[in-house]
């Protein structure tokens, strides 16, 4: 019996009209093998594929769905909004309301602007930092992902602290030469980058979720802040993933460090396409139409997306215990995975922050991308397949974080742990 038959057909058909059969590359399962299940619907903690298989969903659309699928409050808000019109390209009160909900959580943020994706939010934050500082160079960290805009699709050239080279054809090296690459959790590598001068900003995922889950140490973030202040460079926290995920205030709620600009996405749209970036009134006043730095968007702040975001955020804010409850589940899941690995003699390291979790098949605690590269990706691929076969949907790469949603029960966590134990026994025997 082939439990993925319909998905295989659908994938072949998609392949004919969409490059790789997908609208975002990771979805093609390239790094784990097999066919991606085509999803028919979701409900709470579960997704159902078109073959009728049910999965406990630890991806949750890569982060946005902190309340799981089809949360009735968010759904009702969206349905209400759609009845009044999908988009006007004109101001609506919902934008101000959602902006206020976010701004009031962050003493250092006075204003923000909504866009339609995390990529757009970060791209504009970088433009703003360059515009405000009058400088061109930026520093990013190897292994951090900030969306697919040109300046940020950069890989290390001949070594760190050199000017980056494009990580994709189509990105001019004239552009990426302004992006310097440093090593995560390694302040000396940042100091070296600053020697190049003309640094507009440093951008970091303060809790990295795009090389697996790799949090920055407090000590590192403090030193980073000091360096930025010393060099008059802006510090950008890219909290597109960690925002409203790691805690209500994201990494800003966990670290004492105050960034100059923060970017959000994922959770703030509650499953609809929303991104945002915010900063002090002074910095934001450089943005068009108040200032000269240009940015625009036809569907930016559209009322349907705002309604979904508002419903999510209001729900999060009225449930202060959500993050510790989600974290308890994340810890339980990770301890269960680790025990299962240990019992079959496989090394695993795990971590969690609020509703985010991560694990590596690795001996060593992962502090940066070099460490992450040491993980056993072949074993991960087998584990992923085996878990999928047991109805557990994990991110299809060992360089991704996992997500807990409020609709996950203790039974769901237990089932996933049992599946992990069975999967590890299956793939390590013989
Ligand atoms: C997902 C993500 C982005 C890009 O957001 P999109 O909505 O996919 O464009 C940027 N930064 C971080 C940290 C992310 O996790």
Would you mind describing this structure in some detail?
The protein has 430 residues and is α/β, with parallel strands linked by helices. The chain has two domains: 5-70 and 321-429, Alpha-Beta Complex (Aspartate Aminotransferase, domain 1); 72-318, Type I PLP-dependent aspartate aminotransferase-like (Major domain) (Aspartate Aminotransferase, domain 2, 3-Layer(aba) Sandwich). Helices cover 36% and strands 16% of the residues. The chain has 13 helices and 18 strands. The protein has helices at residues 5-17, 72-83, 93-103, 118-133, 173-176, 187-194, 218-230, 281-284, 303-317, 322-343, 369-372, 377-389, 410-428; strands spanning 39-43, 46-49, 54-57, 111-115, 137-141, 154-155, 165-166, 179-182, 199-204, 207-208, 214-215, 234-238, 261-264, 275-279, 349-353, 356-360, 392-393, 402-403. Strands 4-14-13-12-9-5-8 form a seven-stranded mixed β-sheet, sandwiched between helices. The chain has a four-stranded mixed β-sheet with strand order 1-2-3-17. A three-stranded antiparallel β-sheet has the order 15-16-18, covered by helices on one side. Strand 15 (349-353) and strand 16 form a beta hairpin. Helix 2 packs antiparallel against helix 9 (303-317), helix 10 runs parallel beside helix 13 (410-428) and helix 12 packs across helix 13. Residues 117-119, 122, 145-147, 205, 209-210, 238, 240-241, 265, 275 line the site of pyridoxal-5'-phosphate.
